[in-house]
Amino acid sequence: xxxxxxxxxxxxxxxxxxxxxxxxxxxxxxxxxxxxxxxxxxxxxxxxxxxxxxxxxxxxxxxxxxxxxxxxxxxxxxxxxxxxxxxxxxxxxxxxxxxxxxxxxxxxxxxxxxxxxxxxxxxxxxxxxxxxxxxxxxxxxxxxxxxxxxxxxxxxxxxxxxxxxxxxxxxxxxxxxxxxxxxxxxxxxxxxxxxxxxxxxxxxxxxxxxxxxxxxxxxxxxxxxxxxxxxxxxxxxxxxxxxxxx
Length: 246
What we know:
The chain is mostly helical. It has helices spanning 4-17, 19-61, 64-67, 70-110, 122-125, 129-149, 151-160, 164-170, 176-186, 191-199, 202-210, 214-242. Helix 4 (70-110) crosses helix 6 (129-149) and helix 4 (70-110) packs across helix 12 (214-242). The longest helix has 43 residues, at 19-61. The two termini are 21 Å apart. Keywords: Membrane, Transmembrane, Transmembrane helix.
């Protein structure tokens, strides 16, 4: 049975041994995740309020004869923002998902080797682009749907599917049902411990916040990614022992 201290110690050693490539890959993963997440939420929020804001501002600044144009301008801006949000979502699905899996592959290989930053793009060269894109899209969709019901079930699903990108990183041809089933079995009885492992980095994330992300870029993010790769390595070894993967 693994412990937080063990995984974090191994993760720290692995990323410090191949420091700069780990920093580079973790930085790319963080930027991609942040841009797509912020872009989508901003687009959805702005679309819902743009017409009202334009109308209200026009009503106070211009004569009544001009204010009739502001609902049209607001609607046009809303459409533009909606299209931008849609574009961001498509980029997340067709590019971001591949980079996520490629990043996980990098940190898996980094446990016992010294891969270079280009490993993050392996998903595009695997020959199974469509399978990776669809599987990660369905993972995100299922988590979102469960989260809409209640927050707690959504969190449970996050940790139930936690191993899916790692499984695809090593087995890009695996069908989505098998990837979900193996991840679910790997995380059976370990979701709470994995959640606690995530929480153990909160102090580091706070330190990253107050240093404007500098500590996160050069230490916390690669440290956390390497530690989660250690969790996958443990789960994979256990799966071999229990005989449900070969």
